[in-house]
Design brief:
With 285 residues, the chain is of the alpha/beta class. The chain is 21% helix and 24% strand. It contains 6 helices and 11 strands. A 6-stranded mixed sheet has the order 8-7-6-9-11-10. Strand 1 and strand 2 form a beta hairpin. It is globular and about 70 Å long. The structure holds guanosine-5'-triphosphate (GTP), magnesium ion and zinc ion. Magnesium ion binds next to helix 3.
Length: 285
């Protein structure tokens, strides 16, 4: 007889989904109604059934959250990984932070490759937890592991920052492709092609594909400020209660830019705000 099994999607390749169940990992296809893009994500808890010789996903359980970049679900903690090389894109970092806060995922800024060089992250010190690590020397790896206990943890960030290397170091013997930084363009080569959950006792680590753009954060422009705590704490002293800290007169936030609020951080807030406004206009044009 046809017996349902429950499990978690740990990998998706083309139209195949690998589901971890109490009977082991099953390769499944998706039932027609679930075939649309985004209907099944790595991280989803699903119900599968056997149809003749093949297993199929029939149902996706409610998600507690989902991220856009990387495209994963049911996450507790996201290590936003950066390194001295490739050069960090802090707009990307700030957007992922907003995404995480919006989805109730704890963001941690993970500075890898400290064996090569450190970077100044003082702008972030009052915003999110920062951890330094090196997949080369092992610095910080134990701390990452401690923070990941009993959690589903994803590593997000640009290609070649070292996400897979860190996971490799954590698992030590776990083998994954690790690429080189292409020396000509100093940009990652997108070594990791498939998002994948790797389990280690109580820890579920998600290795994700590097990305270099994040256009879509799904948020109203006027609400962006709610996810910039470092600006928002000064709003009570802005002239207007609804101040967006952009063009309004007597904006208290602006008085603190370059002091408590990093100039770069403020500029990125304005950039992302303008992007959101522009996208909204395009949407309603
Ligand atoms: N010196 C040094 N090199 C590192 C460190 N971590 C990773 N690398 C190197 O950086 C390069 C890219 O590492 P990957 O682990 O493939 O990077 P990734 O973030 O998984 O990249 P994608 O899969 O393309 O998203 C490799 O050549 C690694 O050896 C580190 O801590 N120190
Ligand atoms: Mg990788
Ligand atoms: Zn203001």
């Amino acid at each position: 007889m046809n017996k349902s099994l429950e499990g978690r999607v740990i990998k998706a390749v083309a139209s195949k989904f690998f589901v971890e169940t109490s009977n082991g990992v099953m390769a499944c296809f998706a039932r027609k109604k679930l075939k649309k893009d985004g209907n099944i994500l790595v991280g989803d808890y699903v119900v599968i059934n056997k149809y003749q010789d093949a297993y199929a996903i029939d149902e996706v359980k409610n998600r507690k959250n989902e991220l856009i970049r990387p495209y994963v679900s049911n996450i507790d903690l996201c290590f936003i990984t950066i390194a001295y090389e490739p050069e960090p894109d802090f707009i990307l970092v700030d957007k992922v932070i907003v995404n995480c806060l919006q989805q109730n995922i704890e963001p941690i800024l993970l500075l890898n490759k400290t064996d090569i060089k450190n970077i100044d992250l003082s702008e972030y010190k009052n915003i999110i937890k920062i951890i330094s690590c090196s997949a080369e020397t092992g610095e910080g790896i134990q701390e990452i592991l401690e923070l990941s206990k009993n959690k589903t943890v994803c590593f997000a960030g640009q290609s070649a920052v070292g996400k897979s290397s860190i996971i490799n170091k954590i698992l030590d013997k776990y083998e994954m492709e690790v690429g080189e930084i292409s020396s000509k363009i100093k940009r990652g080569k997108n070594t990791t092609r498939h998002i994948q959950i790797i389990k280690l006792d109580t820890v579920s680590l998600i290795d994700t594909c590097g990305f270099s753009m994040l256009e879509t954060i799904d948020i109203e422009p006027n609400e962006l400020r709610l996810y910039f705590d470092d600006l928002e704490i000064f709003r009570k002293d802005c002239k207007f209660n609804m101040c967006l800290h952009i063009n309004e007169p007597d904006c208290e936030v602006k008085k603190h830019v370059g002091k408590e609020i990093g100039l770069g951080r403020y500029n990125r807030y304005v950039t992302i705000y303008n992007e959101l406004v522009k996208r909204k206009e395009e949407l309603y044009d």
